[in-house]
Amino acid sequence: NDITVSEWLLKTKQSERLIRQLWEPLCLATLNTPINQASAHVLAKVLQDSLGKSKSDADLLIPKQALGDLFPLIAANYIEQHGGKVSLQTRAKEIIVQQGQVQGLVTRDDTTIPAENIIVALSPSQSAALLESHITINKPIEYPICTVYLQYPTHITLAEPMSGMTGTLSQWIFDRSEQTPGLMAVVISGPGEHENMQKDELILQVCKEIHQMHPSLPEKADYSLVIREKHATFACTVDNERKRPHSQTDISGLWLAGDYIANNYPATIEGAIRNGKNCAKLLATSLK
Questions:
Q1: CB-hemisphere CA count at 13 Å for 207?
Q2: Per-residue pLDDT for 55 more than 90?
């Protein structure tokens, strides 16, 4: 049976210092969920597939270009090159189902698109809203990720491309100067006091913490930008792990994908890719 990460750490007699300086930041970074709620099973699987395997499996890849250019743009180009169509800014408002079989969907502008198979790859809350008249999807708690971008003079760099921080509001600092000289990105994962802080207050606190850790950086950035993703990921709790749905539904032609669908990973690109490939295989098999 699954237990929380904090229960697991207590059972294995981890010290308070080790929990505070290693396990808490590691759990937030991978599951975006506090240790007193997070699933020990999922964290163990993440550790097994990264630190528990070869050195290359734990490599940290920092992209030199936007993730949108690395993943969705390439996927969209592939679809179009093979005769498919990608419709941007086209929202589905209803899935048409008759006698237990998918018939198509209706977009926000009331355009009907006939279809025998539809894969819904949305966040759990979006999927639940779109499909509420057909199937029930558990709506888990969703937790934020906050990124504070700090622009310093262009000659400013750090010794390492990323570094972790403990005992502070700031959790991770990424040196983005290779892409944009002097740019730093500070990441704060999960729920916390930062959610209630005004933008200027948050920037001031983050700049202060960064300067204390890296005295070579000025006390204040030249300018800054705060991006708050309030519903960045689903909370990877013990309870949610039991309720994650599977790709195949009871409605013929209706399939589910996205990172929330049952797999051994938390809300990550890796989990979404696994679910996408698995869903495509199931659909292809059903067509034979």
A1: 20
A2: no
